[in-house]
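D,D-dipeptide ABC transporter permease: structure tokens wanted.
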Amino acid sequence: MTSQNLSTREWLLSDTPESRRHARLAAMYKGWLTLRGNHMAMIGLAIIVVLVGTALFAPLLAPHDPFVQELGNRLQPLGTEGHILGTDTLGRDILSRMIYGSRITLYIVALVAMIAPIAGLLVGTVSGYAGGWTDIILMRITDIFLAFPRLVLALAFVAALGAGIENAVLAISLTAWPPYARMARAETLTIRSSDYISAIRLQGAGPLRIITKHIWPLCISSLIVRVTLDMAGIILAAAGLGFLGLGAQPPSPEWGAMISEGRRFILDHWWIATMPGLAIFAVSLAFNLLGDGLRDVLDPKDSAS
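Answer:
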């Protein structure tokens, strides 16, 4: 078994790949080794894995129903029997609400991560490849979105669309795509004048095929790093909207809304707002740590040096 593992490792670390699949697997394995050597990135990855596991197994992990109110048991402190993190103003178990709140956090993060980068990639690559008036118009629209603070613009969109978690996701996505468009445009401007793009064009490839088959794949690594680093901002924006009552609506156990509910008791019953605040801090830090590690792995400049 040991010799088999050793031969597999040597096969993956070979400098002469036998096929495209071999080269791809070798690159992935070398990237994993680089990421594993970054201890802070592994801590971030571990926290994210715990978050995902908590969200998936929330019904099994939560000791109480997060929606059940016990007014006779309200404002219980930390360490209370049956309520490790205490209870809120309506007697609901804070730990259970935080566990279920991880589902809402992941839901928002996943949807925004699917919408904003794809929209930014599409706008940026089309703008960079087409040039001319198309580039000018698309980039001026991007500049308009970048001119406003993200949270303020998200508040304006939510106010227009109405409160709710889906509208919050849409509002955050509408404010998050411009940086991806800028990045994709910059990548496209450097790629489109390359010799191999000229060769592909001479072979009869159209703009759509060049963008989707040859430019998009080269933008993906930078996009992944940017998405990971932006997760903290997305989580904070969602929590901010929830804090202001424009995100997930009561009685949903969204972390920002939980902080909003506990802010009136922050001096006497500090744990009501502090516990979800610490959860937001931990998850945001985890995504930042993982993003830094992925940048070391996927940055082509570092790979070339």
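Residues 55 and 268 are 30 Å apart (CA to CA). Residues 27-64+80-302 form a domain with the MetI-like fold fold (CATH 1.10.3720.10).

Cheers.
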